[in-house]
Amino acid sequence: xxxxxxPITDEQGNTVEQxxxxxxxxxxxxxxxxxxxxxxxxxxxxxxxxxxxxxxxxTPRLAKRVREVAEQGDATLGLDAIAGARVIPQELFLxxxxxxxxxxxxxxxxADMKTLHHFADRVKTILLATEGTWDVYDxxxxxxxxxxxxxxxDKANRAGVxxxxxxxxxxxxxxxxxxxxxxxxxxxxxxxxxxxPEERQSLEGLRTAFVEGEHGKVPLNSIATxxxxxxxxxxxxxxxxxxxxxxxxxxxxxxxxxxxKQIMNSxxxxxLQTQLxxxxxxxxxxxxxxxxxxxxxxxxxLGISVxxxxxxxxxxxxxxxxxxxxxxxxxxxxxxxxxxLWLTNNALGFMPQLGILSLFxxxxxxxxxxxxxxxxxxxxxxxxxxxxxxxxxxxRDQFRNCLVDAGKQRFLPIFLTTATTIGGLLPLxxxxxxxxxxxxxxxxxxxxxxxxxxxxxxxxLYAIMVEHLGVKVFHEAQERGGxxxxxxxxxxxx
Length: 494
Prior knowledge:
- There is one protein chain.
- The protein has helices at residues 2-5, 58-72, 113-128, 153-159, 163-174, 197-200, 203-207, 256-264, 267-274, 286-317, 321-327, 330-343, 350-385, 396-431, 434-469, and strands spanning 7-9, 15-17, 19-26, 47-53, 101-106, 133-138, 143-151, 177-184, 187-193, 210-213, 216-219, 224-232, 237-238, 241-250, 281-284.
- The chain is an alpha+beta fold.
- The strands form 6 sheets. Strands 5, 6, 13, 14 and 15 form a 5-stranded antiparallel β-sheet that branches. It has a two-stranded antiparallel ribbon with strand order 1-2. It has a two-stranded antiparallel ribbon with strand order 3-4.
């Protein structure tokens, strides 16, 4: 199917191949070869095809086309719909390696499987009725047709046959018993003993099989009854409790987290939860659970960082006024960062969040440098003037001129620092790939806007604090000669 879907016709009428290369793995997903890809464990009914396209622009189109043909077929290409299998084309992405929608139905301990299946099927019905979802399934899958060997203990004991003997014999007949290894040059070939293929395809061969006991071989049907029945192909547990996970994919442009929240708040789900037996529960999993865990950990780290910054600023300035002014620069970073993500079509993922945290540190540094330089200019001017103004002997105009001069003199160093940082981020923004582009654009836009606003907002807030709230610029210590040794005491302007 993939080879037939690969050729397309471009705008010039030329035939172009969409697929450059592909590789197939059957029976499991192998090792983790990509950060956001969770490989499937060994499963007989699983296969994975990794496709590399000739152009990244073809990837979304090819994934959509594969899904359409797998579900509906294509008569023009001679392709029929694939029945009896789930075909899930997925583009590689950065983020949690979980399904976008996952809701768990959990029962206590050895919970009744029929009850679990009943409520899991109701959750699947709600998901199927929700717009924007497809490929709704549960992790237990369809029941498998299995043969149960009910051993008559009395007959088996008289024949000298144990349950282990029966299991080993049947395993040798149908799966194979390893006898030896044959070496052929540099290669080793395992040798197994088992029944012929035609004898392994019929139940009659199982009924007439012989089992080796202490008193010789006995027919299996003389000591056991073979009962065919449907049983769950897989039983999953979580925290020692049986659990069925109902999952689904989402259409392009639809948020899986929004769908899960919508379902959990729906009337049908609330009604289902009221009907759950004691000990049973329905809980959220998948991307939403991972996002909530990450947000909690990130929030804790951010809280510790902010408290540490505030603590250090209070110690440095011996008060609250200047730290408050400096901390007001933090929202200025978001004014540029968030629109930058929107303009460049990048999501607010984990890496852009790290970029915003880094941006906070850069903006705080800019505010601290400006405040320190402004204090030096104010102190030097106050010592030189030795006037009688309300602000350390300076008039309002003299004080404001000091702030303006500080902004002018620090503008070039701050601008050069910002420009070099942006220059270092541009290669990541233009060619860093999905992992770095969002973070780089977030920091670039945030730096541009925050730097300009910092040089305007910080002086304005500083002037308001000093002129109207009586905040001290620096502490005053009078010497015996009456001059200003370490500054003056600021007072509110009349």
